[in-house]
Amino acid sequence: DAGIRVKMVTGDHLNIAIETARQIGIGPAIYPGSEVRKGSETAKQNILAADGFAQVLPSDKREVVEVLKKTHGLVVGMTGDGVNDAPALSAAQVGVAVDDATDAAMNAAAILLRAPGLSAIYSGVVESRRIFRKLKSYVTYRFAASIQIVLCLAILILASNCSINATYI
Questions:
Q1: Mean pLDDT by 10-residue block, N- to C-terminus, for the chain (169 residues)?
Q2: How many CB atoms neighbour CB 48 within 10 A?
Q3: How far apart are CA 23 and CA 33, in angstroms?
Q4: Cα 117 versus chain centre, distance
Q5: What is the DSSP string of 102-140?
């Protein structure tokens, strides 16, 4: 609902991943981890188009994150709780370790969730977007005010042909 595309990247069997994706509404395009290992341009496009991957290795998880970041220019967030998630958590721009994560996952992540469940991620996204809008509005206001002051002073100086003391500025 927040405009974030979700992909499932799991070490579980392909059939389990397909059924899990169906139950939680991710999408039907779940591919085996061997698809990630190909390294071709077609594989990189499949990583973007896929809803998820199953039977992956820790290096495959990192590869998915790297391809989405570098090849497709996306901002990538990753959640995980195990040692096998640590490489991908550290590669993602936003690595999120869940409540019961291992020490390796917690050290690799940028954000640690202490509340059970993943609803805190949604709350964090909504709050960060609100903060970003306020900061953007403030910066725009400061630029506009600065330009207005410079233009007014320039017009006064040029129209009256006088100098202004630097302390006034």
A1: 86 92 90 85 88 91 91 90 89 86 86 80 88 97 94 87 77
A2: 14
A3: 21
A4: 19
A5: -HHHHHH-SEE--SSSSHHHHHHHHHHHHHHHHHHHHHH
